[in-house]
Design goal:
The relative contact order is 0.15. The longest helix is centred in the C-terminal third of the chain and has 19 residues, at about 305-320. Mean pLDDT is about 90; it is low at about 325-340. This protein has helices spanning about 10-25, 55-60, 80-90, 105-120, 130-145, 160-165, 180-190, 285-295, 305-320, 335-340; strands spanning about 1-5, 35-40, 50-55, 70-75, 95, 120-125, 150-160, 190-205, 205-220, 225-230, 235-245, 250-255, 265-270, 275-280. The protein is globular. The chain is α/β, with parallel strands linked by helices and about 350 residues long.
Amino acid sequence: MRSFVVGLGRAGAGLHLPVLAKLRERTPQLFDDGPVTACEPRQNVASRPGLVVAPTIDAAAAGLDPGGTVAHVCTPPTERLTVLTELATLGFRKVIVEKPLAADIDDLARIIRLRRKYKLHVEVVEPWLASTLTARLAELIRDGRFGAAKSIGIVQNKPRFRRSLVRPGHPTAFDVELPHGVALALRLAGAARVTHASGSDLEVDGNVGPRMGGATVGLRHNSGVHTEIRSDLTSPVRERRVTVEFEQGTAVGHFAVSGEDHHSQLTLSSNGRSEHVVLRDDAMTEWMFEAYRKFRLDGEQTQGFTFATEVVRLLSVAKNICAEPVSRPARPEPGAVATHAG
């Protein structure tokens, strides 16, 4: 198959292109020998060996066979519907969409209708669901080694000042990291409802990014488990941590914080004893491989799409709970925010 990447921002150029390069080398039988095609309207993005760049979707699609091409939608959430509509009308049916699938439930409803009308096969990017760490945690919950799971805590922190202020892209902090956390919680503990939510502004040097400072979502699962998901986009450190509290122990997992290292870590504690393991965990590559394998098999795809729509619905409820922007409280350390503005 050919690959067509729409949008060469952080997701397209920083994630999808490197993963595609790795997969094309590792599993060449999945791919056509032709270069990856990309659409990017910015004038400073040039073609290079193995990549052909065009300024519009129409121009990029001119040399592609839609039936044998996987389109990667790597544009901001607010542009998902427009891009998917254009791709569908041009004949593309196999689509990978960056998370979240939609910015709100209105766009979600339109995307669902579009998918039904054009019989689209849509895979929404959720690398944590293909993670070795997630599989280990799911196994711990399933086998009852430490008794029943009682609660899950997910922390997704990173400094994100420049991108939030200069090129926002995402409407709120709920749309940046939390889609990963909500999807992980649903995979580990099952269906849930939102119990509470809060959001904050990003403020630095007199500039304000409304509702981009951070977000918190609480979930109660039908299984009885409670989940708390927190994301601070003004944090001085990067962290992707999940803690599962069991009746007789605790599991603390750390996902890789960037694409520079493909390892996660897991610490298990029970009855005063502790066990620590480092796991090989190239989750994004494994997720992309599985997506292309599904496209090649050309089978009916429903479960993953339904899962992605539930993530959007829960996040929409959370955003509605705290619809009015709330200013971020000052840090206790004077000047801490300004120190990390650059």
